[in-house]
Design brief:
Number of strands: 0
Low-confidence stretches: none
Distance between the termini: 112 Å
Helix content: over 70%
Number of helices: 3
Shape: flat
Length: 114
Amino acid sequence: MQRVKRTLLFLLILFFITSLTRSLIEYGKNQQFYQDYKDEYLKEKKRNTELQTQLVKTQDVNEFEKIVRNKLNLHKPNEYILVIPNPTPTVLTPTPTPIPNYQQWLDVFSGKPN
């Protein structure tokens, strides 16, 4: 009788442990699903905001004119287009400051090497 009670108690404890383990694993999966869903939602919300901003910009007449002028190189009648090329960077090489002539003569007479 004592042995049957211990066996039943052991089986009951084993059942609770496996049930708890399954519940913890399922909880972890649900947490991961929630985090992935939340990240995707925030990403789409940010994208929606950007698209709304872009929509407002494209409906603006001044912005449309700016895009047309810049991309298609169009201009109004009696208007001149001035194209200024980007300046090319010039490389400056450092040159040492030349020694004045009087210092050179003093160095020659005093015997200092250059």
